[in-house]
Amino acid sequence: MSLLPVGDDITACLLQRAVHEATTRLYLLFEDSDSSLSKQLLCRIGKALSVVAAERPCLDVVPLLHWAGWSNEKVAALPDLTTLLQHETPPPTSARLCEALQQARPANMSKLNIAQLHCTPQYGQQAGDLFERSLAPAQAADYNFEHVAVGGTFDRLHAGHRMLLAATALACTLHVYIGLTSDQLLQKKQHRELLQSYDDRRSAAISYMQAVRPGLHISGGALTDPKEPTAAATEEGMQALVVSEETVPGAAAINQDRGRRGFAELTIIVVDTMGSTRSGAGGDKLSSTLLRAHEFGS
To answer: Which segments constitute the Cytidyltransferase-like domain (predicted)?
Structure first.
């Protein structure tokens, strides 16, 4: 597995190269001085995962934050981490972080390899700073809640799913409730024979959030009836709901339901919808349906 330090000066070109260099998992260690999920950081993570969506949408990319339980010592001790990725002429912050991880590597583990990345002309169209036009206002309030809900199908985890799940894990300090669409409700999905089972989808989503934020308590259940209220509506102690842009109307309906019950409204955390520029995808919204169709036709 590989790790790429992500500072304010990272370029899309470098991230593209890292995405293609990675094998099965790529860790992105964000350099962030905050202690919770700011809107600026959410924008940074979204911008990074949009590059992943365009290049290798199903690559397992995990954002790591020091304040979310990932000290240099814990990162350096990851048993599956073998390689640090950096530019052939790394900026000082990246070089210092790579050196710190090497020094923190446990003595009984092999030294981390250093792979230098070179941005060739084919990647030059995105040579500017990745984050230069993606930042939210610095004064925006942070997302920091004890109880957060998220829902979805989560078939074939892709960059869009990972954005939703990472935002959920980073916004939550105690307990996440995840609702997953039951197998029964997916019978009319296109290429349903390629759908992962409920248990596999649930396991993958929970494992990913725990990779982003170790120690997070996660529970959940199957969404079996679209007419029935979800836990986000019926649990009075729920504080926030993470949704994609296309499901904002559903989030508003949940808050209306909570209002009828006399509960406080949820804070709605909206993440950007990911696009895909893969061959044959036509730049459409990245989705599991699109990926199943691609697999069916391959």
So the answer is: 150-292
- Single-letter amino acid, residue 133: R
Average pLDDT, the chain: 87
The predicted pLDDT at position 139 comes to 54
Q: Are strands 217-223 and 60-64 parallel, antiparallel or unpaired?
A: unpaired
Q: Collect contacts of 70-74 with beta carbons under 8 A, ≥24 apart.
A: 70/29, 70/214, 72/97, 72/100, 72/101, 72/104, 73/104, 74/214
pLDDT band, very low/low/confident/very high, at 138 (cuts 50, 70, 90):
low
> Residue 298 above 70 pLDDT?
no
What is the torsional sign of CA 39, 19, 210, 96?
negative
Q: What is the pLDDT of residue 278?
A: 44
| CATH superfamily of the 145-271 domain | HUPs (3.40.50.620)
- CATH number for 2-126 (one of 1.10.10, 2.60.40, 3.40.630, 3.40.50): it is 3.40.50
H or E stretch including 145? strand 145-152
pLDDT at 75: 98
pTM here is 0.88
